[in-house]
Amino acid sequence: MLDINALTTTTANPSFISICYALALAFILGTVIAVVYVRTFQGLSYSRNFIHCLVLCPVVTAIAMQAVGDNLARGIGMVGAISLLRFRSSLKDPRDMFFLFASLAMGVACGVHSYSIGVVGCLGFIASAFVISHTPFGQSNQYDGLLRFNMAMDYKTNEQLEKLMSDNCKAFALITLREVAQGNRLDYSYQVKLRKNRTYEHFINDLQAVPGMKGVNLMLQDTTFEV
Q1: What are the residues facing 188 on neighbouring strands?
Q2: Amino acid 144: pLDDT
Q3: Are 175 and 190 in contact (CB under 8 A)?
Q4: Domains identified in the chain and CATH numbers
Q5: How far apart are CA 226 and CA 220, in angstroms?
């Protein structure tokens, strides 16, 4: 049975049962954060080791915080010990960094026996993560992706290309235009946003039908269509 009195212990002199409660809660909150990260993940570089890190980080942090307690000398010693470590791995996605920081914060809350702060803070964090991942908040809808291709220099072909772009794209902007094949061909780069009644596959098929078209490459946020 849960001993309520054990939950009110101080960090200066924690009891055995309070230490067990702190580590168990740290593990549970870390697991919840890891599950939320998996459910809301939208990137390309998924790492199983990072998921394990989100679960283990609160446990290790809770142990460290309980070992330090209210002792200033222990805290200075802990900082010195951590400074000897060299963390070689870098987080390329800022979102991963904040999930790791949330996991660390849960460990700190459990380590100092602030269980209510840890639980409420975890619930607030996962609610925020779900809201921003399942809503269009922060998305830019100006363009869908980047279109690249090259074709022969021909006035009639250029007219056909412009008509095709206007029929299929709600908006498009020429980014770069350069000569290739000793000036016999032109390499185009466009930012494009397709119309609602158009699909990427049909758009690429229409581009391929243009005489002299080569190297069609449509790079979207999640997928790349290349011919």
Answers
A1: 149, 177
A2: 74
A3: yes
A4: 4-133 (no CATH), 145-226 (3.30.70.260)
A5: 11
